[in-house]
Amino acid sequence: MPDQLYSDLKMKVVAHRGYASKYPENTITALDEAVKVGAEMVEFDVQLTKDGVPIMIHDDNFKRTTGLDLNVFELNKKDLQNHIALKEVSSVEEVMVWLQEHPKVTAFVEIKQASILFHGLEKCMKALKEVCETALSQCVLISFNPYAVEEAIKTGFHLTGWVMTSYAAAGEKTARNMNPNYLFADTEILPEGTGKLWEGHWDWVIYEVVSKEVARKLHLRGVDVIETKEVEKMLS
Question: Which of 38, 75, 85, 186 is the most buried if burial means most Cβ atoms within 10 Å?
């Protein structure tokens, strides 16, 4: 049975790497299945191949998710087709085609620091902006790197989010200077207690939330959006 008390909170749910508790993370299948159970927000990670093509994957090595021990930066985009183990790895261009087919879905697109270090910030942002152009209004560029968020704004992304690594005064100052649309934080970095989180023009997105009781407590602290791999559970 639906939890009426929880349902009344009207918490928004971001599918973390898609419906990653049941399907392979960062795949179109995982994104698709998240939408099928009611998600209207999804998140996926991006690395750039050797030739600078954005692909949907979290790590800079394929081993954890595909079993193939190869670095992302060793392969060009066309090389992906030569490895059957990589058949589920999609380009961000392919993800945008999927996103256009789901016009009510918002996608949080996270550029990973490894690619920024390998290719450089400007190259990463330029490549991502080009491939996201077809569904740009549905995309929110997010990153742990505050300079990436600022560069995304300069590049032409309309919506951005900063993923914080600590809940401290310096972080609040950065957030207020940057003024992103979304502030992401891990539950583990939040201060204990029931006090309200920093108030601003942003929406808080807290991850990884797999308990409705935790979601209720976060709601009282000013949070309306949670991120989870347990998509169906947290939407019910």
Answer: 75
What tokens were used for 13? 């749910």
Residue-range definition of the domain harbouring residue 199 = 4-235
Q: What is the CA radius of gyration of the chain?
A: 17
The b/e string for 207-217 (b: 16+ C-beta within 10 A; e otherwise) is bebbebebbee
Burial class (CB in 10 A: 0-12, 13-18, 19+), 103: exposed
What is the per-residue pLDDT across 96-131, written as a single tens digit (0 to 9) for each?
999 999 999 999 999 999 999 999 999 999 999 999
Structure tokens at 93: 């261009």
Query: What percent of the chain is modeled with pLDDT above 90?
Result: 94
Q: Is 158 a catalytic residue?
A: no
Whole-model pTM?
Answer: 0.96
Active-site residue 58, yes or no?
yes
* pLDDT score of 1 more than 50: no
Whole-angstrom Cα distance, residue 45 to residue 233?
A: 22
Both tokens of 225, joined, read 């959006």
Q: How far apart are CA 187 and CA 209, in angstroms?
A: 8
Number of domains in the chain: 1
CATH of the domain at 95: 3.20.20.190
Report residue 29 as tokens. 């299948």
pLDDT the model gives residue 81? 87
